[in-house]
What does this fold into?
Amino acid sequence: MRLFDQFSDKIIYSYSTRQGGVSDPPYDTLNLSFSMGDDPDKVRRNHEIWLGSLGVDPHQTVMLSQIHSNHVIAVGKEDCGHGLFRERIPDADGMITNEPGVALVTGHADCVPVYLYDPVREVIGMVHAGWRGTTAEIARVAVELMEDYYGCDPADLYAMIGPCISIKYFECDRDVIDEVEEMTCDTYLTYYYNEFTGKYHVSLAGLNRQVLKCAGVPAEHIDMEDKCTYGNPDLYFSHRRDGMARGGQQALLMLRETGPSDRAAADGQHAAPAHGATDHSAASAIGATATTSNASADSFPTLDEFKAIVAELLDELPRAFFKELSGGVIVSEAVNLSPQARANDLYTLGTYSVGPLGRQVTIFYGSCQRAFRHLGRAALKDRVRGIVRHEFRHHMEFLAGMHGADSLEAADKRAMREYLNNNK
It folds into this structure.
């Protein structure tokens, strides 16, 4: 029994195999990839078969144009249909949501599927982690986004690492190991060197487990499927084994729809900042307004009220932090349209930068209004607190480290290190 099975009344999860479909070799038979040269009509039929077996409507699915990054986005019902009925959402490898009936679907053919579920807040995440995404710690990014957007506590999260290529078959050169050794988590015993072949072997599943633990997910809440895609040719397609002459699997995670209930009412206070349904520019990267809100759009704070909220949150930070923040804290009325905003949803909401006025943190009122206008005041404050903590971490980590400013006393640096340790 898998850990997620205890939540079968709350979630639907799956990892497809290559069995039970209609595709011909080399895509036989349940190929779910449109990009390998298979007949598109057969791929659509395969989706109908697989999703039908799960009780999921194909129109509920959300799919990404995966790029082996650590970019994770929040999605909602406005995004359903991306992948099967309209273009995939571009440039991302992970998704989170708290909306029931939104099926998060990622594609795989050796890369690691990471499933995340918070049974307290009723939030899910689905991640595609190749070796690049793994070493860029995309699983940690997903956990942090669940914290920042929905107020999740990592200690409440459950995670499952699905079928992927095993350490036995994942061979690589030193360049991959260099990336592994730069990771922030403990990578001991996750790779070894084969002196006979001159190749390294890496456990991508093991690395993702370490990333999740470092992100605060309890070890006893992490399940590992331990099925190798390369070593089971009857069950799975494998890129390393078959090259381009193959099909592809998919992983799926969805919150079950419960209909009108007390839970739906509660979700109005934690509704998802949905990714834009058709426009994926930076201006809509956090996107459309949720419809389950208990608060009207008119209740969103004015610019001055928003500044007061930010000022109140600043009082939570160590005073030493502001000694070197010469550019101050700015609340901008604008929507952030910078190139970085297109690559990082949190950057859309707030940034830490060094400019003509010195080091400064900017919180974008316009971006926050787009993302959070459906939230009540208390929930909004939680989200802005997450932005403040996230953006200030970059500056604090610099100041509290060995390269910190000489003008800071040792006690100042200790205060900031203590804050960082207590607010991971």
Summary: Confidence is low (pLDDT under 50) at residues 260-298, 402-407. The chain has two domains: 3-257, 290-422.
